[in-house]
Amino acid sequence: MDSNQNNVSGARGRPRSNEVHRNILDTTLYLLAEVGVEKLSIEMVAQRAGVGKASIYRRWANKEALIVDALEQIKPEFNMPSQGNLNGDLYELASHFVQRMNTPLGKQMLSLLISTLAGSSQISEAFWENHSLPKTKEISSIIDRYRQNERLSEDANVDLAADLMIGFIMYQLLFKPPTEDLDSSLKQGIEMIVKGIRKPD
Amino acid sequence: MDSNQNNVSGARGRPRSNEVHRNILDTTLYLLAEVGVEKLSIEMVAQRAGVGKASIYRRWANKEALIVDALEQIKPEFNMPSQGNLNGDLYELASHFVQRMNTPLGKQMLSLLISTLAGSSQISEAFWENHSLPKTKEISSIIDRYRQNERLSEDANVDLAADLMIGFIMYQLLFKPPTEDLDSSLKQGIEMIVKGIRKPD
Amino acid sequence: MDSNQNNVSGARGRPRSNEVHRNILDTTLYLLAEVGVEKLSIEMVAQRAGVGKASIYRRWANKEALIVDALEQIKPEFNMPSQGNLNGDLYELASHFVQRMNTPLGKQMLSLLISTLAGSSQISEAFWENHSLPKTKEISSIIDRYRQNERLSEDANVDLAADLMIGFIMYQLLFKPPTEDLDSSLKQGIEMIVKGIRKPD
Amino acid sequence: MDSNQNNVSGARGRPRSNEVHRNILDTTLYLLAEVGVEKLSIEMVAQRAGVGKASIYRRWANKEALIVDALEQIKPEFNMPSQGNLNGDLYELASHFVQRMNTPLGKQMLSLLISTLAGSSQISEAFWENHSLPKTKEISSIIDRYRQNERLSEDANVDLAADLMIGFIMYQLLFKPPTEDLDSSLKQGIEMIVKGIRKPD
DNA sequence: ACGTAACCGAGACGGTACGTCAGGTCTTATC
DNA sequence: GATAAGACCTGACGTACCGTCTCGGTTACGT
């Protein structure tokens, strides 16, 4: 996803400055948070970063590529340690994701992602295959691990449960105003989902 | 949400043409579907609609306002007839919403809405209060109606179940590529949610 | 030159208001003095005159016609009484013209006239035939009257003398800043011209 | 009067292209002659010159400034060689000026100048001080050189004679239609002026 | 050690679209 | 049918960015 194709092998001439690279990305991120995606301009980034426009276009093909790359940086990784119980693990996952994304920048990243997916079914398909689906599998494998301990139904569709959870998190994140208390509803939502795949008892 | 503030009472001068108004909105919607939000220009709309730019700016303050207003038109209303059982009613609701929004235009509307909400916590709050919350209540009141018939838990948090469902639908809509089969996963998801609020039996 | 073609004979309906007509012309003249030709707009005139734009366009074909008509009003007529000597008569003529035109409005009128003449050789020709030439003749006939009394050369080209005088006046008017003393140089200039057509003594 | 303020000393960034500068001015002049001052548009100039609008507005603050600068270029300089006699020298001067200005462009320049002077007494004053007066002095010094040779009156007001001549030329230029024969009336006018300042003999 | 190719900041380049304003026409309701 | 108001289409205004190109100047490699 990065474009720093920099002097890989038989490079001649002055190599690209990593400092400049970082500077541009950081400034972009900063301005993204300050003025939003719509009003961000390359000229603005260049000036605030004290950098020539050419140094930006040398690294990224256009404004979109830069923004995507800048936002890419704040993408959360979840390799959470197990809590020993399903609800705990899922909550840990959700909570970590929410903490990372429940910021102006995080929301902008998500909304940009969504509008990108909405704009091209091709990208949509690729993203689903390479990101969404693996993430779903990751979550559903966690759930699967607790199949016996938590007395889940034999025929419980864990993938569906994962989707349900991701959708719930996204919805809370994107639609609920920042003032609302996400944490407790996250807990409750997870509880309900887990109950939905548990044996009737 | 509409800007056609004319002829209200003691109007003087030539009244604004409703034909022109419709023409602009329709053309906007058409072009939105054809070229997407990013590449839509007012000049394009004016030319294709056979209308002066002034006639657009007389009604809408800027490009964003026009786009929002145009997309507003395809907002789905759900006053579905009852099917006699909870799963059926919820599915009807979800299915109707999905049918309306599972189009390029519908997705663009949603993604625009999301990026707007992401951009301003003030708008976010207002939208939550005036649209999301009422919608949630509408759904949870439907669920509530079946509390006895469907043997739901006494302490079942129906609002939460509604949120779970809306989130699930949105996620399916926005992240799943158009090729996937939404309908069956919709059915299954609803089933799981309903199970999550049903008495253990 | 006026366009008030108003209900001359078998008029039907409401007759055009002379009050409106005057109002428009006066306002135009007032605004011409206030903001200048370049920045004058019909919308401005209509609003300040408390008149609909249609009422203006009903009377004048376009902005230029209105401006020309408005400025036409301040055109000086010179039917001056004779002073009994050539210098006196010519000075009276010049002085009267200068007094009328040595105002912001008068200068604007002249400069508008000049730019009109510069823009079309057809208009230029017509104006020369219908205005300049007759005026020249008028002046030269005044000079001619004094041929004997003032001992002018038999072969003196009085038409040329008239042109010389008009040109001199125009130049003083249009190029000399308002602060300069026009009157005395007018007197001197006339003296010199008269000397140029007088017998060597 | 020129706005090509670039590369003066510590210039940074790409320097402004002189080719572009010339191109714009030439195109402006060409279009000025083709369509006239009133109908000239910046967009037209940009398109015809194959230039972005920004490149024009980078150099000139607005349309007027560009037009003034373009017309400035055709301003005549008169450093004529002496003919050995007053009439000849003056005719040479006048003829040269007339030849340069007796074109659509020249007339437009003069009429634009006049309307500018009419619009602001401040500009009028400055122009008088910096252009008209020096020009007058230039001419009157030429006349003065012949004071003895041509037997001019001791008290002849040579400045006035110069004004008389300039006014005459302007008048012929601006009011006489292009079809008329300027040259011979120029000669005659000069003759009359010279006679007006010569000793009675 | 040194030439040179690719870098750097700055900013001009040809474009496109913005939102505004005015020109001249057309459409209301009112007089 | 004239009037005041104001909407209509057209098209230019001057501004802001886009992505590219061109300066003078600066590295750091490869010879």
UniProtKB/TrEMBL annotation, chains A, B, C, D:
Coiled coil: none annotated. Transmembrane segments: none annotated. Residues 18-78 form the HTH tetR-type domain. Keywords: DNA-binding, Transcription, Transcription regulation. It holds the Pfam family TetR_N. Residues 41-60 bind DNA. InterPro entries: DNA-bd_HTH_TetR-type_CS, Homeodomain-like_sf, HTH-type_TetR-like_transc_reg, HTH_TetR, Tet_transcr_reg_TetR-rel_C_sf, TetR_C. This is AcrR family transcriptional regulator. It comes from Paenibacillus brasilensis.
